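input
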Amino acid sequence: MKYNWSRRELEALGEPINLVLPTRLAPKAGGGGKGSAPPPPNYAAAAEAQGASSMEQTKYQTQANRPNIVTPWGSQTWSGGEDNNWTQTTNVDAQSKAALDSQMAMQRGRSDIANNLMPQAQESINKPINYDQMAQFGKTPEASNFERMGQAPQLKTQLDSSGVPAFPGQFSASGIPAMPSYDSAFVQNIQNQALDFMRPDAERQQSALDSKLANQGIAAGSNAYDSAQRRFGDQQARDKYQALNTAMSQGNQMYANQMTANQQGFNQASNTFANNMGLNNQGFNQNLAAFNFGNSAQQAQNAMNMGNSTFNNQTMQNDFAQQQNISNQQNTLRQQQIAEAQMRQLQPLNNINALMTGQQVGMPNMPAFNTASAAQPTQYLNAANMQGQ
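output
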């Protein structure tokens, strides 16, 4: 019995293929009765038939994945195919071909230059760098022996009171006349003395007035008599008041004199106390000025010592920094000389590497395409299994 492939598979291969199964795989004529069981299918033949179908599918897929590609920069074609032996040919257009030739010529020229540089590179690499001819390393700066401040001068803490007049202490009221009080007895005494001095004249005037009134016939007790006596009494009263006023004036004068004497004594004592205080303050201020001057001089000397020490230490620091700068400059110069020597040694080799690793010749890239997917072979082995079942 003959089994044909599917239409899609036959159209893909280009011609119909008839696969004749072995007799052992064909169904038995008139089968299906109640006789003996049919013989089992030939599984080996089914597997071989499926393997042949898989080979045909693989050839079809390989041929489908060999398309001819044409681009503006060139084309890619396939030829051959007998016994699965294929040839891929890539062609470029005229402009791309000219550019490719130019690149290949340039690369060949760089290779020639690099080959000419090989003796120079070999000579530079084989010649060791003489580090002894380089600038020597800088010397380590010498440490500075910094100065230290000596012990600070001892300042005076106690004021010298020698030569200072003694402090006058409390104000002394000795020698000052006592504070006066108004002496009324003195006033009364002065008044009595004045009245005693005026009494004889007053008695004579009274006797003369009485005689005068009697001679004039003015009787005692009359208005004229009483008026004359009253006027005489008023005069006597004024004389007594005058005597009292004189006594009080003398009493006031004496009180004022005593007050003046007391004030003069107080002022003299005050001036003496003030002079003593002034002398004491003057001596104290002089000693205090000498005390402050001595301390200021010691402080000035200490500041001068500190300034000198600071200046000397700064000078040492500047000297250390200068030494360090010179050492760093020498080290920098040596490093620069070594770097230059190494650059001179490796420069020919770097030039060769630059020439050899320049622009490389590249083939034009062809666009990708959708590859054909793998097709499944005819499942003869499954069919045999089903037949056997």
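quick obs: The CA atoms of residues 111 and 356 lie 7 Å apart.
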